[in-house]
Amino acid sequence: MTPVLLLPGLLCDARLWRDQVAALADIAVCTVADLTLDDRFEAMAERALARMPARFALAGLSMGGYAAFAIMRLAPERVSRLLLMDTSARPDSEAQMRRRRALMALSASGRFHGVAPRMLPNLLHPDRANDPVLGAEVTAMATRVGRDAFLRQQTAILHRPDSRPGLARIDVPSLVVVGAGDQLTPPPLAREIAAGIPGARLVVLEGCGHLPPLEAPEAVSALMRAWILEPGT
Fold it and tell me: Does 2-92+157-229 carry CATH code 3.30.450.20?
């Protein structure tokens, strides 16, 4: 059985990966990290590393990808293979920082429950944007994560480094996945990551936005199964 560390995105919890954990139970022991407790990615990485065995496979979505890059900086020798989904190796642009700080201000002023509805249209593929079940799942995750953790996560994101210089040093089998309709970290950013990591493979999932594990759980589980079973280090 392969140990796998799964890193959720902003305002996401273990529900994000629930279907994959179940689908891969015959070949993987999955651990979903808690990325709600720290306001720096180095601290998130150290906390997650403390839960894992000496070697493990690593997968992160969106903000979880930023945490995965931190793990690759801190302990690359412990990672046997890498999956980066709907994420970016770049730091925020000035415009992204302004939007992020506006959401933080909204939350700090006592209107945290207005954050998820504002974000939802950008999280799901347009064809699924009005899906009440998916919308309820995303909103429920945000509610469970809560305001204080959201502010910590956004602080970490604002202070994250540029991960592009380290891409060429990643030397494990790597899969980069992105939803074709991802509006937050669109396919060109995934292509940049895949081009920067030697030997990385890129998969674009049609009909998905920023949250493929929820939007297309069976397709993501199949990709992850092949990724885990692929011969490598």
Answer: no
